[in-house]
Amino acid sequence: MFFKPLKLALVSALCLSSSAAFALPFNSFDPRSMAMGGAGVAVGSAGTAPFFNPALLAVTKDEDDFSLILPIVGVRVYDPEDFRTSVDNFQTGNYVGKVKTSINTFNAPGGLTLPNANAIAADTGVLNSQLATLDSKPIQAEFGTAMVVGIPSKKYGGAFFASGSGALGGVINYRDKQTLTDLAQVASDAAACSSDPVLNAAACNAVAASPYVDGTGNFTFNTANLQSKINIRGVAKAETGISVAREITIREQSLAIGLSPKIVKVLMFDAVADVNSNATLTGDDYRAEYTNFNFDLGIAKNHKNGWRSGFVVKNVIPYSYDFKRANTPGGTPVPTGVKMELKPQARVGVSHSNTWSTVALDVDITRNDPAGLEDKSQYIALGGELDAFGWAQIRAGYRADIVNSARNVASLGLGLALFKVVHVDIAAAGNKNEMGASFQFGVRF
């Protein structure tokens, strides 16, 4: 029977997609930034400067001498067509179990009756329609984690950072509508044949010729007829590097310049599995790995009356990576023809701060290419923060995607600073289709 493997495959696709990632985001999962809509190019701290703009290491507050953040963790799940609810409804309805039960009942001694044949036809038709609701519905997720040790300074600011982020998407391509339609038709013919074999001789002949009924009249099902696929594609990226920054003077104007050389390791996977197969592809069957050198370059400037501007280009060196997949289990992975382009990402930002509030705006100058099965993105981030004497912060923001408005999200966050040294920050962001959350623990003085 194909029904049990199919159900397991559906659940596996959901679990894999939910636990792991969309387009690799411009920013990290820093909760202050997430709460402020994703803004950070002109407002980040020494602890987050390597992820937004290394030049910020040279324009932080004079009293900032050291920053340690360990860890930053966050996740987002994007479900634009309510795939999770569809799967929940599918499981709750037990449609696979009903078909299996009706077939077993028919095949049992004395079970070749008109009601039992009609039950197979009815239950198979319902299963067909319910599986169709899952067809081509994507589910995607992002995750991120990071740590930073930062020492800001106008002369020579520096930081060591390590981060990991990922993007994964899963989709079910349901291609067994005709197969289940044929199975339902055979059940209907069996019902007609059992009611009057002489009058319905054509139906009896159709049942006898069907590949779904054996010589004894019992129903069988050949799993080789199934064509449905589960496609899971994604990228995980790890970065390790240092950020350095210095404030220089040009025509009596102070300007901070920052550089983040880094080693980037990219792990890509592109798996396609048959829903009727019990075989498990190993990681080597669909994995491709790449390691490169890259760097980020940024500038920042403090203006009068609390204003600051910033500009950054991340991943200045472009790379092209091939997704790979083995044609047979255990074979050598070969390019699938699908590529991921890691292109430079440019963003500009502006912020205003005083003793009790901060407002920031970031705009992506370039579009972010997809990493998994998702669309391109280009964000505008707007956020604000209210500060209670350095001990607590309340934040809110909004992220707009000018490419896909369905990815627009609102966000909220809270920061607590014990003795203004030990910092704990949390944030949440989302809309009806997308939810994200992040957490950060750090020490800053």
Entry summary:
The chain is of the alpha+beta class. Helix content is 22%, strand content 44%.
Total E-strand runs: 16
Rounded mean pLDDT is: 85
Strands of the widest sheet, in order across it, are 1-2-3-4-5-6-7-10-11-12-13-14-15-16
Query: How large is the count of helical segments?
Result: 8
How much of the sequence lies in strands comes to: 35-45%
Question: How would you sum up the global shape?
Answer: elongated
Unreliable stretches: 1-23
* Structural class by sheet pairing and helices: alpha+beta
The gyration radius over C-alpha positions equals: 28 Å
How would a textbook summarize the main sheet? 14 strands, antiparallel, barrel
Approximate helicity band: 10-25%
Structure explained in plain terms:
A hairpin with a 3-residue loop joins strand 10 (345-353) and strand 11 (357-364). The model is unreliable at 1-23 (pLDDT under 50). The protein has helices spanning 3-19, 31-35, 49-52, 83-93, 95-107, 114-132, 177-195, 201-209; strands spanning 67-78, 138-151, 157-173, 229-250, 253-274, 287-302, 307-314, 319-325, 334-342, 345-353, 357-364, 379-388, 392-401, 409-418, 422-430, 434-444. The chain has a 14-stranded antiparallel beta barrel. Strands 8-9 form a two-stranded antiparallel sheet. 22% of the residues lie in helices and 44% in strands. By secondary structure, the chain is an alpha+beta fold. It has 8 helices and 16 strands.
